[in-house]
Amino acid sequence: MKNLLIAVIAVTVITGCLSTPSAKKSVLMPAKINGMQGVKSIAVIQVDGTDKPWYSDLKKDALPKFEAFLANVDVDGERYFNVIDQSHIKRVKEEQQISSQATSDEETAIKLGRSVSADTVFMAHYQVSDIETSTYQAKAQGECLKEHEATEKVTKFLGEGSGCYEYDEITVDCEKKTVNVEFTPKATKVESGEIVYAKTYKASATFKECPNEENKTLKSNSSLVSDSLDIIFAQMRRDIAPYSLLLNLKLIDGDNTAMPETVKGVFDRGLFFAENDMLDRACAKFEQAASDYSQSPALMYNLGVCLDIKGESDSAKGFYEQALDLSAGLSSSDTGLVLNAIKRLEGKTDLDNHNKRDPDWPLKSMQDSITNLFQ
């Protein structure tokens, strides 16, 4: 695991609700599904399922949508997968006289994948529920009760017929539509025939519509399916390819050792720089202080953080271990920070779930907005 954590240099300092400054480090995590690690060249052979009368083109639309998701997976600014173009797959199928029905056979799919130079073939199955429709009541704007006098000034600033400033409140009947989608992708290695990834994802999308809503874009039933698939692909993203996390490394603001006043002044100056987003200067001050006093676990730990964010993991671990040796001068919570740092560099910490266990070590995704989930 340690070898798979690739540090990316970041020198932003996080302040705010944390009591002491924290250095922000970007960590590249491996795909959560072990079998997907090393997969690079993909051929999407088949995506099938049962169409609905209200979306008869789902089978035709699902494959290119899934393929586009895979093709747009981005790691460190570059496309991660080489997705074999469907026109090439179609041409090879015709040359080898392979029917579309035959590609549902595992051996045939692997043979086809080998012919198009893919290292992995993908097949997927979808299942779509019927549209669930329900009604509910909501408050809405009714008729105008009071309006401004239609003077020239009112018309100029509010527009013709827009002088109303008090409306009646009415109750209207609204409609809610929901669709549930299941999507099961399966990845098979061409060389070994081993299924390295198979998982069922579930998602639902809902659309609410009320009468008299202006500028409302009506959603079709098919768009609800498309929205559900987008949610599913977002769920898949971390399973199939490396992804980035932002790791906030909390600095330690002091210890119980007999730090000389002159050294403490330099140390505090370093904390001041860190609090003001000047981590380079902060690290220089920590280094200066440590050259005059090497018995401070807080100094040793903070120097470890300075090296950690630069990706110098081995050197950082050395300073963390020095801090641990001196941890009699630390509080129990600060000793926990030191231990967590060492465990992380040894690959013994589940970074994805760490924030749930330790609020002093907040983790968040770098790209968790829906619009950037495929990057």
UniProtKB/TrEMBL annotation:
Please list the coiled coil stretches.
Answer: none
Which InterPro entries has this protein been placed in? TPR-like_helical_dom_sf (IPR011990)
Q: Which PROSITE patterns match?
A: PROKAR_LIPOPROTEIN
Highest taxon of source: Bacteria
Residues covered by region (Disordered): 350-375
Enumerate composition-biased segments (Basic and acidic residues).
350-361
- For bias kind Polar residues, which ranges apply? 366-375
Name of this protein: Tetratricopeptide repeat protein
